[in-house]
Amino acid sequence: MGVVVSLDKAREPKPGLKPLLDLVDKDMKRLNDLILSKAESHVDMIPKLARHLISSGGKRLRPVLTIACAQMCGYDSGDKHIPLAAAVEFMHTATLLHDDVVDESDMRRGKTTARILWGNEASVLVGDYLLGQAFKMQVEVGIMDALSILANAAAIIAEGEVMQLAAANNMETTEDEYLAIIHSKTAALFAAAAELGAVVAGKTERERAALRSYGNNLGLAFQLVDDALDYSGSKELLGKNVGDDFREGKITLPIVLSYRRGNRDERRFWKRTLQDGDVRDGDLEKAAELMKKHDALEDTIKRARHYGDIARDAMALFPDGKHKAALIETINFCVARKH
Amino acid sequence: MGVVVSLDKAREPKPGLKPLLDLVDKDMKRLNDLILSKAESHVDMIPKLARHLISSGGKRLRPVLTIACAQMCGYDSGDKHIPLAAAVEFMHTATLLHDDVVDESDMRRGKTTARILWGNEASVLVGDYLLGQAFKMQVEVGIMDALSILANAAAIIAEGEVMQLAAANNMETTEDEYLAIIHSKTAALFAAAAELGAVVAGKTERERAALRSYGNNLGLAFQLVDDALDYSGSKELLGKNVGDDFREGKITLPIVLSYRRGNRDERRFWKRTLQDGDVRDGDLEKAAELMKKHDALEDTIKRARHYGDIARDAMALFPDGKHKAALIETINFCVARKH
């Protein structure tokens, strides 16, 4: 009956989101209530479709960042962080709905995607509705700097999505180009989410810049790990199929590195599968092998650690405390996560 | 060589947009320049796709309303009406891009649609980018009431689009339901565009409500005529195929009236073509015949005149002058237009 636990694991508990979630716990119910109420509409299809994704057990990492950063910055004069956090989550949800249409995805967070259940058309339009609701919530809060941050983020995110679309199936994509894409499509909203915490608390540009940098680099690390997990994760933990990026011809860093480090035969393989879209049985396994051969996944995680380090240093100007500790632990979670 | 001109036509020149366009002429160049510059991006595909639609000779009716209403309200202390008008046009353009994806349209304004040229994916994402840019422009103007009006409109428009999607192929749609759809998907942006003119000029709720009502009813009339033209217009003037709504199973007022006024055989015809989507050669002609039999197009235009009348009366509180006259002439144009 004895279970062998390696000493290593016993000594170092796996980093997790728990410290962060514990801190925001009392605000989370209000956040979730607000999110559900703003997904309402007299048009039946809207709440049905929106709740399918909203209630599907996402990590709510972005709105949690807004709430935690607001708390760390000493915001206690009101509730404005809640609708701002909800607006961030809605912008994220709208992006996911549109993404799944663009990528023709069947699974998300372990569930059939909305576009399969209700159609691409409804997914596009309900995404637009959620963007409109996000915009309304921000206007109701009425902090011009917050509006400005989120308006900028909205345009940059869409720009990143278009960049990604244009880079699809293009094996000549460089690491810099890949970085520009994930900076726009992922890190910009993390940066906005964190900076909003400083803005709502009335902090100066010094704190705003620090949290912007924290969020931006955390977002880069998060996306890099995401892209590695697409080749190494488990379907059960991920809630989606392993190898989706491969089948879609999405050029992520593991691919960029493997291609650049590969020999002529290997490059021919990558071109056939990703550029020409000619994917055969066993190709995903072969791709994983080549990534292993060239340490592509390991080095993708290494890059993630690099951005995680920058995020950690960005926090230096804040006094030590449980919020700072939890936000730093969140970096560790994002880098070490398996889902 | 003699050309016979009917006395009627010679005496009553066709109502047109010219009076309105003449009044806003000096602002139009700045509007167009701003629109083109805000459709820019370092991501190639964005300006290409956006300009395809933006430069395709749309009437720019909505932003023109904002500018003309601002002028009528005596706004002369700045240029804020220009970016607000551009934001209105971008919201409209984003809706068109998403609409064409949802409706699978091939033609718009006499040109192949963006989704055919660059794909559905790019059309969805560039639409999102334009929404983001619209949002940014509004934030830069920084008038909270204007932001509130446009945020509301964004959510309502998307709601209307979803309602329309849910009503597609449903022959039991009532005239009230149809009205609710066009109120949301079309009239809400006309109402916002007109009201912004009063807001930017710092007018009170009295003028705001009047212009909101003018825009709302003008928008209803505009859409009703649009729906009639889809069965009676000429392809050359419309810039799209006659009968598109029919082929898409879109339930518009001409259909609602014909169905309700029809006998059992006719209702069976409408159910086969629109509900079951079983459209055969000659069905469009048969549909047009039935509409003629039941005065469905004529009565759709009659309804448009009704809303046009309300729009006209909404203008009563403004002093007579060339702006008021041009805005009223615009109602006549919208009701009498052939494209």
Characterize the structure shown:
The structure is a homodimer of 339-residue chains. By secondary structure, chain A is mainly alpha-helical. The first copy, chain A, has a single domain, classed as Farnesyl Diphosphate Synthase (Orthogonal Bundle). Chain A has helices at 7-11, 18-38, 45-54, 61-72, 81-103, 114-118, 120-141, 144-167, 175-200, 205-232, 235-238, 244-248, 253-261, 264-275, 283-293, 296-314, 322-336, and strands spanning 107-108, 111-112. In chain A, helix 3 (45-54) crosses helix 7, helix 8 runs antiparallel to helix 9 and helix 16 (296-314) packs antiparallel against helix 17 (322-336). Chain A is globular and about 65 Å long. At the A-B interface, helix 5, helix 7 and helix 8 of A face helix 5, helix 7 and helix 8 of B.
Give the arrangement of secondary structure elements.
Two copies of one chain form a homodimer.
Chain A: H1 7-11, H2 18-38, H3 45-54, H4 61-72, H5 81-103, E1 107-108, E2 111-112, H6 114-118, H7 120-141, H8 144-167, H9 175-200, H10 205-232, H11 235-238, H12 244-248, H13 253-261, H14 264-275, H15 283-293, H16 296-314, H17 322-336
Helix pairs in contact in A: 2-4, 2-5, 2-17, 3-7, 4-5, 4-9, 5-7, 5-8, 5-9, 8-9, 9-10, 10-16, 10-17, 13-16, 16-17
